[in-house]
C-alpha cells in the first residue's frame, strides 16, 4: 500500500516536473485568432488569422469552415494564395447565399488549440481595392482655375454589371498643410475642386466603398501645381480703395478751403460789443483812462455850437404864399449879446421838426426862383401900384401879415418866413449869388426903407397891428417903406420879392420896379413872450445850403448890443469900421454896440448916410447871416 | 485525412456549442456573428441577382442583334421555328395565373427556370466562341451570365430551404432533354438559333425577376401585390 502511494506521488511529481527537468517548456499551441476576412469583389474572399504561442514546438494551423445550413465541415482550399496565415476562397467556394463559420486550429505535438469561430457573410466583408487610373487636371472657368479629378473603379470590382455598386470619396490638401479636405463624390467618377490658391501644390487621393462594406485604401497620391493667376477681385478692391482715397483727399481739401465759412455757419461768432473807439486791448490792459478817452468822440457832445440858444431852438415855419407881399425888417436875436450865425440848420440836432429848413428851403428856393421871376414882373406892376395905392397896403400887410402869421406851420414849432424883399437892383436874377447880393441890397434897402418908413410910419402904426412888416422896395432910391415897427411883431426881412406886397408899398418915393428877385430866408428863431417872432436871416436860395457854414468871422454882422429903454435895439456892428447909424426899431434883446439905433426919430438924418454906407456893404455882405442883423443895411437907411 | 476527419468530428460538437446566438446582427466592420443569413436578406440578394442577370442578358441580346441579325429578321424571332426551350415547363405565363399561384410554386417555378437554362447557356457560349467576329464584350457577358445563373440556382435552393423548410433539392440535370444539340448547323441557322436562345433567355430572366419580386412583395405586404 505504502509503495503504491509512493509510486503515485512520484509519478505525479514526475508528471509535473518533467518539463522542468527537461529544461525546456513545451506546451500545446496557443489559441489562434482570426483577424479578418475580406472580399475584394464579392466573388472571392480571404481570411487571415493570428497564431498564438507555438509552445516551442512546430505548430500547424488549419482552417475549417462550415456552411450555414450544412453540417459538413470543409477545410480551407487554399492556404498560399493570400500569403502566410491566410485562407483564400475562390469563386466556386464562395456563395453569397450562405454564411460561413470559420475556425482556425493550431496544432503541435502536444496539443491543439482552437480559435473562436467566426461567421462570415461575404456581402458584408467586401473591401474593394482602391480606385485606379486616377488623373488630376487643371481646367479654367472664366479665368478661375479648378482641379478636375477623375478615376476608374478597381478592376476586380464588377461595377459594370451592377454586381457591386461603389461610392467614392477623395481628399485634397496643400503640400504644406496638415489637414485634408474631404469630398464625397457619390457614384460619379469625376470631381471638381474650386477655390484654389494661386501657385499652390495640391495632393489628391481617392477611395471607394460598396453599399455594405468597408472603405478601400486610399489610392496613390496625385500631385498637381496650380498656376499663378491674378485675383480679379483684389484688383477691383484696389481700384476702389484708391478711388475712395482720392475722393477723401478732395473732400479734405475743400473742407480746408471753406473752413472759415463753415465754421461761421456751424458756429456763428458771438457778436461782441462794437463801440466806436473801444479798444479791447486797452480794456485788457486795465487803464480806464485810456479807454474812456478813446471812447470820447471828438465832436460829441457838440460843443462848438455851445450856444444854448441853438438848443432851445424852435423854429416856427411860416409859409408865405406867393401872392402875398411880405415886408420884414430884420429883427434881431435878442438873447445874450451877440447874434450868432445860425448854424443849426446844418445841425441835425437843432430841434427842428420835419420841416427842415434844408429841404423846405430847397423847395422854396426852386419855387422862389420861379416866383422871383414872376414877382419881378409883378413887382414892377406892384411898385407902380404901390405908388398909387399907398394906403391900401396897410391893411394888406396886416392881413398878409396876419395871414402869414397864421398860415405858417406852427405845429412843429418852427416857422419859416420868406418875406419878400424888394430889391431895386435890376440885376437881380435867379442866380443864387445874385440873389444873395440882391438880398443884401434888398436888406439894405429894406432897412433903409424901413427906417424911412418908420418916419412917417406913425400914421400907419396903428393900423398895423401885430405885425411888423417891412416892405422893402428895392431901389437905390430911397423910398419909403413903411416899416411897421411894432414891438409885437418884428420880423427880419430877407425875403423874396412879394408881388402883392410890392404893390402895396406905395413908396412915397418913386418906387422903381423892383427887380428884386432874390429870395432870402428868414428863420424864426423863437417866439418870445410878447408874441414877437424873432427872425433870423438865413442864407437864401440854394446857395445857402451848401454854403451854410459856420458864421464866418469876416462877415459883416451886427450884433445886438442891447435894448434901451425905448425898446430900441441897439446894434453893434462888428466888422464895419464905419460908424453906425441907428437902426430900426427893433426889439432889443440886449447888446452893446457902438451903433445904436434909435427908432424913428433920428432916422431921418441917417438914411442918406446909411445908404451911403450901405452901398459898399452890399458887396460885402454876400451872405445873409444868421442871427446877425445887417446893421449896414439898417444903418444905411434909405433916405426918405 | 483521417486526422482531419477525426478533428472535424471532434470539432463538430464544439462548433455547435460555441456558435453564436441565432439572431443576426448586421455589423459592418466586424465579423458577423450571425450563423445564418436572414430570410429577408436572402430574398433581397436573390432578387438583386436576378435583376443583374436580366440586365446583362438584355445587353448581350441587343448586342448580338445589332451585330449578327439583319434588320428584317429582328422582328421575326418568335415566329421562326425556334421556340423557346422552356415553353413546355409548367410555368405560369399570365398575370392571372401568377396571382393564383402559391409562394411555393413561385419558388419552384423560378428554380425550374434557372435549372433549365444552365446548360443552354453553356452551349451558347461555345457557339459564340465559334464566331469569327464575335466581340469580347459579348462573350464576356454571356459567360458572366452563365456563371451567375449557377449562383442564382444555389441561392434559390437556399431560399426554398429556408422559406419552405424543404430539403435540399438537387439540380435536376436530367431535363436536358429540352435542349438538343445540332451538329454543325449552318451559319445562318446557328446565328438564328443563338439569337433565339438569347432572346428567350432574356424573357425567362425577366420572369425570374418578376417572380422573385412578387414573392418579396407577398412577404412584406400581402394585399398590395399584383
TrEMBL record, chain A:
Keywords: Disulfide bond, Glycoprotein, Membrane, Metal-binding, Receptor, Repeat, Signal, Transmembrane, Transmembrane helix, Zinc. It comes from the Eukaryota. It is found in: Membrane. Residues 1-23 form the signal peptide. Residues 367-390 are annotated as: Disordered. InterPro entries: FN3_dom, FN3_sf, Growth/epo_recpt_lig-bind, Ig-like_fold, Long_hematopoietin_rcpt_CS, Type-I_Cytokine_Rcpt. One of its GO terms (molecular function) is metal ion binding. Residues 367-379 have a biased composition (Basic and acidic residues). One of its GO terms (cellular component) is receptor complex. The chain crosses the membrane at residues 236-255. Residues 28-129, 130-229 form the Fibronectin type-III domain. Pfam families: EpoR_lig-bind. It is a single-pass type I membrane protein. Its main location: membrane. This is a receptor for the anterior pituitary hormone prolactin. PANTHER family: CYTOKINE RECEPTOR, PROLACTIN RECEPTOR. Belongs to the type I cytokine receptor family. Type 1 subfamily. This is Prolactin receptor. It comes from Sander lucioperca (Pike-perch). The lineage of its organism: Eukaryota, Metazoa, Chordata, Craniata, Vertebrata.
UniProtKB/TrEMBL annotation, chain B:
It comes from the Eukaryota. It is found in: Secreted. Residues 1-21 form the signal peptide. Keywords: Disulfide bond, Glycoprotein, Hormone, Secreted, Signal. GO terms for molecular function: growth hormone activity; growth hormone receptor binding. One of its GO terms (biological process) is growth hormone receptor signaling pathway. One of its GO terms (cellular component) is extracellular space. Pfam families: Hormone_1. Belongs to the somatotropin/prolactin family. This is Somatolactin alpha. It comes from Sander lucioperca (Pike-perch). The gene is smtla.
Amino acid at each position: 500500500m505504502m509503495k503504491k502511494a509512493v509510486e503515485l506521488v512520484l509519478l505525479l511529481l514526475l508528471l509535473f516536473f518533467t518539463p522542468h527537468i527537461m529544461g525546456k517548456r513545451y506546451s500545446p499551441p496557443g489559441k489562434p485568432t482570426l483577424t479578418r476576412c475580406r472580399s475584394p469583389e464579392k466573388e472571392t474572399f480571404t481570411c487571415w488569422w493570428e497564431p498564438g504561442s507555438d509552445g516551442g514546438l512546430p505548430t500547424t494551423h488549419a482552417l475549417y469552415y462550415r456552411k450555414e445550413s450544412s453540417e459538413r465541415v470543409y477545410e480551407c482550399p487554399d492556404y498560399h494564395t493570400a500569403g502566410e496565415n491566410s485562407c483564400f476562397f475562390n469563386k466556386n467556394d464562395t456563395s453569397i447565399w450562405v454564411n460561413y463559420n470559420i475556425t482556425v486550429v493550431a496544432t503541435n505535438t502536444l496539443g491543439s488549440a482552437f480559435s473562436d469561430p467566426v461567421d462570415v457573410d461575404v456581402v458584408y466583408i467586401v473591401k474593394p481595392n482602391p480606385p485606379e487610373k486616377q488623373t488630376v487636371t487643371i481646367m479654367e472657368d472664366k479665368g478661375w482655375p479648378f482641379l478636375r479629378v477623375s478615376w476608374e473603379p478597381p478592376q476586380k470590382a464588377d461595377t459594370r454589371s451592377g454586381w457591386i455598386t461603389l461610392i467614392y470619396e477623395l481628399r485634397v490638401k496643400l503640400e504644406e498643410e496638415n489637414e485634408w479636405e474631404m469630398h464625397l463624390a457619390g457614384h460619379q467618377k469625376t470631381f471638381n475642386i474650386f477655390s484654389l490658391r494661386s501657385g499652390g501644390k495640391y495632393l489628391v487621393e481617392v477611395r471607394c466603398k460598396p453599399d455594405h462594406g468597408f472603405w478601400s485604401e486610399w489610392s496613390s497620391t496625385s500631385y498637381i501645381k496650380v498656376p499663378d493667376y491674378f485675383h480679379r477681385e483684389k484688383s477691383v478692391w484696389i481700384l476702389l480703395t484708391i478711388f475712395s482715397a482720392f475722393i477723401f483727399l478732395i473732400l479734405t481739401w475743400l473742407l480746408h478751403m471753406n473752413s472759415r465759412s463753415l465754421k461761421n455757419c456751424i458756429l456763428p461768432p458771438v457778436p461782441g460789443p462794437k463801440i466806436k473807439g473801444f479798444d479791447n486791448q486797452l480794456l485788457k490792459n486795465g487803464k480806464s483812462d485810456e479807454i474812456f478817452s478813446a471812447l470820447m468822440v471828438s465832436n460829441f457832445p457838440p460843443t462848438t455850437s455851445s450856444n444854448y440858444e441853438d438848443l432851445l431852438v424852435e423854429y416856427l415855419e411860416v409859409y408865405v404864399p406867393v401872392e402875398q407881399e411880405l415886408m420884414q425888417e430884420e429883427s434881431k436875436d435878442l438873447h445874450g449879446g451877440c447874434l450868432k450865425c445860425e448854424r443849426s440848420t446844418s445841425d441835425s440836432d437843432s430841434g427842428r421838426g420835419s420841416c427842415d429848413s434844408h429841404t423846405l428851403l430847397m423847395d422854396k428856393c426852386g419855387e422862389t426862383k420861379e416866383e422871383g421871376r414872376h414877382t419881378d414882373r409883378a413887382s414892377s406892376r406892384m411898385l407902380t401900384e404901390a405908388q398909387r395905392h399907398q394906403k391900401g397896403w396897410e391893411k394888406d400887410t396886416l392881413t398878409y401879415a396876419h395871414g402869414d402869421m397864421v398860415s405858417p406851420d406852427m405845429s412843429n414849432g418852427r416857422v419859416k418866413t420868406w418875406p419878400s424883399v424888394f430889391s431895386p437892383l435890376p440885376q437881380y436874377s435867379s442866380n443864387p449869388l445874385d440873389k444873395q447880393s440882391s438880398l443884401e441890397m434888398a436888406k439894405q434897402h429894406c432897412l433903409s426903407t424901413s427906417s424911412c418908413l418908420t418916419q412917417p410910419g406913425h400914421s400907419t402904426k396903428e393900423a398895423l397891428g401885430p405885425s411888423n412888416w417891412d416892405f422893402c422896395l428895392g431901389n437905390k432910391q430911397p423910398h419909403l417903406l413903411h416899416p411897421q415897427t411894432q414891438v409885437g411883431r418884428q420880423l427880419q426881412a430877407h425875403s423874396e420879392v412879394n408881388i402883392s406886397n410890392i404893390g402895396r408899398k406905395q413908396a412915397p418915393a418913386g418906387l422903381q420896379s423892383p427887380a428884386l428877385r432874390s429870395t432870402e430866408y428868414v428863420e424864426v428863431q423863437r417866439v418870445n413872450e410878447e408874441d414877437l417872432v424873432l427872425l433870423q436871416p438865413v442864407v437864401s436860395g440854394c446857395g445857402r445850403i451848401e454854403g451854410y457854414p459856420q458864421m464866418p468871422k469876416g462877415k459883416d454882422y451886427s450884433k445886438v448890443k442891447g435894448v434901451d429903454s425905448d425898446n430900441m435895439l441897439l446894434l453893434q456892428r462888428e466888422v464895419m469900421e464905419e460908424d453906425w447909424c441907428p437902426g430900426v426899431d427893433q426889439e432889443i434883446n440886449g447888446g452893446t454896440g457902438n451903433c445904436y439905433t434909435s427908432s424913428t426919430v433920428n432916422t431921418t438924418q441917417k438914411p442918406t448916410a446909411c445908404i451911403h454906407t450901405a452901398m459898399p456893404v452890399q458887396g460885402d455882405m454876400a451872405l445873409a447871416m444868421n442871427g446877425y442883423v445887417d446893421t449896414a443895411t439898417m444903418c444905411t437907411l434909405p433916405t426918405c | 485525412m483521417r486526422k482531419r476527419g477525426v478533428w472535424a468530428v471532434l470539432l463538430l460538437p464544439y462548433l455547435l456549442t460555441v456558435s453564436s446566438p441565432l439572431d443576426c446582427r448586421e455589423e459592418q466592420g466586424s465579423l458577423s456573428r450571425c450563423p445564418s443569413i436572414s430570410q429577408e436578406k436572402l430574398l433581397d440578394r436573390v432578387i438583386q441577382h436576378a435583376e443583374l442577370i436580366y440586365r446583362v442578358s438584355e445587353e448581350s441580346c441587343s448586342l448580338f442583334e445589332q451585330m449578327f441579325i439583319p434588320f428584317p429578321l429582328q422582328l421575326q424571332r418568335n415566329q421562326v421555328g425556334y421556340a423557346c426551350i422552356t415553353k413546355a415547363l409548367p410555368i405560369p405565363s399570365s398575370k392571372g395565373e401568377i396571382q393564383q399561384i402559391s409562394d411555393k410554386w413561385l419558388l419552384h417555378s423560378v428554380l425550374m427556370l434557372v435549372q433549365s437554362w444552365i446548360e443552354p447557356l453553356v452551349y451558347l457560349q461555345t457557339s459564340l466562341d465559334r464566331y469569327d467576329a464575335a466581340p469580347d464584350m459579348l462573350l464576356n457577358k454571356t459567360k458572366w451570365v452563365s456563371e451567375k445563373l449557377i449562383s442564382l440556382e444555389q441561392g434559390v435552393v437556399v431560399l426554398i430551404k429556408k422559406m419552405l423548410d424543404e430539403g435540399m433539392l438537387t439540380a435536376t440535370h436530367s431535363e436536358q432533354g429540352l435542349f438538343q444539340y445540332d451538329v454543325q448547323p449552318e451559319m445562318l441557322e446557328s446565328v438564328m438559333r443563338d439569337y433565339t436562345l438569347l432572346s428567350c433567355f432574356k424573357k425567362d430572366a425577366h420572369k425570374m425577376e418578376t417572380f422573385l419580386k412578387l414573392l418579396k412583395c407577398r412577404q412584406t405586404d400581402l394585399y398590395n401585390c399584383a
